[in-house]
Amino acid sequence: xxxxxxxxxxxxxxxxxxxxxxxxxxxxxxxxxxxxxxxxxxxxxxxxxxxxxxxxxxxxxxxxxxxxxxxxxxxxxxxxxxxxxxxxxxxxxxxxxxxxxxxxxxxxxxxxxxxxxxxxxxxxxxx
Length: 127
Known about the structure:
This protein has one domain (about 5-115). The protein is about 80% helix and about 0% strand. The protein has helices at about 5-30, 40-65, 70-95, 105, 110-125.
């Protein structure tokens, strides 16, 4: 059975937490702007799951790549990057064409893990 590295678990948990907080803030902005309805919750849920899932898959790929030769690791990482980008495209298309999702609330959470990574040094500096 494949075992998830503790670092991958820890970082995915961190990304999940920050993405959740930013998702709540995004919902508040939509609410204050008077644009909010149930499609924003469903879209945000889909976007949250896709963005955190994308990060987890990236972490698992890096974990696996560390056990391979450089050439094979490079191929694996490139294949993973293409597959994960395709997954996000499919999620965005679902968000656009399925009526229970709001496209903006699906796509905006895709950038939340990147924001979480950028603010990580600020949080770590306080520890």
